[in-house]
Design goal:
Helix content is 40%, strand content 16%. The chain contains five helices and five strands.
């Protein structure tokens, strides 16, 4: 089962609904792409327990989100034990946008979290330039 959510503002939609969806599809969900969805640290944190139970996930995409390094670490730790996960896209932490040297320093540390548990085929931090 694939779930693609596009252009959702979670403060209006309610992260509770997405958590419910994740909990009820945890045994079958294979792809989760949150595309153009505005999500804050607190909303992602609320999803992590349900997300960590999605044992059939093969692909996740969180690329266009703005998360702190602390919450991004928690996300990576939550999915590190999902053995079927092979394609992963994560945003760099907010702290990495200024200066670029911070991005280069933090990226290897963050990417090492899932690598300690498994060998994903694609594991990327998607750097984007903010105006």
């Amino acid at each position: 089962m694939q779930q693609l959510l596009s252009s959702v503002v979670f403060s209006k939609f309610g992260v509770t609904h997405l958590r419910f969806l994740l909990e009820n599809t945890a045994d079958t969900l294979q792809t989760l792409e949150l595309v153009n969805c505005k999500m804050e640290d607190s909303e992602l944190s609320a999803l992590l327990p349900a997300l960590s139970q999605c044992s059939q996930l093969t692909t996740v995409n969180f690329c266009d989100k703005d998360f702190s390094s602390a919450v991004l670490k928690k996300l990576l730790q939550s999915v590190a034990n999902l053995s079927n996960l092979t394609v992963e896209f994560y945003p760099p932490p907010l702290e990495c946008y200024d200066p670029l040297e911070v991005f280069a320093q933090l990226c290897p540390e963050l990417l090492d979290i899932p690598l300690a548990k498994r060998q994903p085929k694609t594991n990327s931090l998607c750097y984007r330039h903010l105006p």
